[in-house]
Amino acid sequence: MRKILFVLFLSLFQLQAYAWWDAGHLVTAAIAYKNLNASAKEKVDKLVKFLKRDYPYTNNFLALSTWPDDLKGEGVYAYSSWHYTNIPYNPYGVAIPRQPEVDIIWAIDQAKDILASSKAREVEKARQLAFLIHFVGDLHQPLHSTSYFNNDLPSGNRGGNDFPIASFGKWRNLHACWDDGCGYLSDYNDINPYGEPREPISKKEVARINELADRIMAAHPEEDIIGLAIQDQDFWALESHKLAIKYGYKGVLAIDGDGRKKYIQPNDPVSEYYLEQGQKVAEKRLAMGGYRLAMVLNSIFPEE
User: Fold this and answer.
1) CB contact at 8 A, 28 and 291
2) Strand 146-148 to strand 87-89: parallel, antiparallel, or no bridges (unpaired)?
């Protein structure tokens, strides 16, 4: 019984550590793939085959998007610090510890360099392609950019993992709420790219994700998004940081009749108003992550 409880606890902890649950990563990848030029699409399709040799369930570009999280499920934690950066939200000015230098911003830089290298082996490029797809998605999830520090949490709240909320069992904390796009992605949480036993993502599931991608792109055309073309992951992190503060940690639960705002606090139940605002942010960030991922890959693999 103790072993069963420990495994359950471990699985819950690992789930909380992810950014965008599977659906968010899949739809980011789908948006990117739809916007690749012919040369980039041909190149990434070839790279998929190299990763597929060792991980048969990574059978297409979309399936690569969740592979870095799947490594955690296999007990591989060497890349754990690559999934986030901790720009401090420190309104009380507490002394904070030094943050890791090897983070998601560093990891995206490494992936881009290796994919563009003439020396790197194709199998390594395939791994870095999967990391790039995943981490560009991660960085557009606002709470993967920010940790909140105060006197009770001088080491930070781990991107909202230590910000409990009352959601009647749906989400354990603020981070999990935002991984689910504040409910925007809830209808797609049944899509598990690999499953047990592990199998490639089905054509039916790919079709559902592509339909969602089309809806998101229709709601947020490239030409309507200010600053979209900025190809600097430090800038992306700052975008997410501002959104994490405004809509995450200082998200509004309600506005009373006198126009006074009630802001979310630990252990509060999340309100419909809070979720509605968060879903709007999540939808746009999914679009931006997909478009920007395509831009990065198109620049690495330009039309010949």
Assistant:
1) no
2) parallel
CA atoms of 171 and 185, how far apart (whole Å): 13
Region 38-45: what's the mean pLDDT? 98
Sign of the CA dihedral with 264 first, then 269, 272, and 275 last? positive
Q: Give me the percent of the chain exceeding a pLDDT of 70.
A: 93
- How many C-beta atoms surround the C-beta of residue 74 within 10 A? 8
Please report where in the chains the tokens 């639960």 appear, as a residue. 253
Query: Which residue, 84, 71, 67, 112, is CA-closest to 292?
Result: 112
**DSSP letter string, 195-206:** TTTT-PPPHHHH
Task: Collapse the DSSP code of 58 into the 3-class scheme (helix H, G, I; strand E, B; otherwise coil) and give the result.
Answer: coil
DSSP for residue 165: -
**Bridge partner residues of 247 (DSSP):** none
Task: For 168, list phi and psi in degrees, rounded to 5.
Answer: 55, 40
Q: What is the pTM of this model?
A: 0.92
Most confident of 4-8, 19-23, 62-66: 62-66
Strands (E), the chain: 87-89, 146-148, 252-255, 261-263
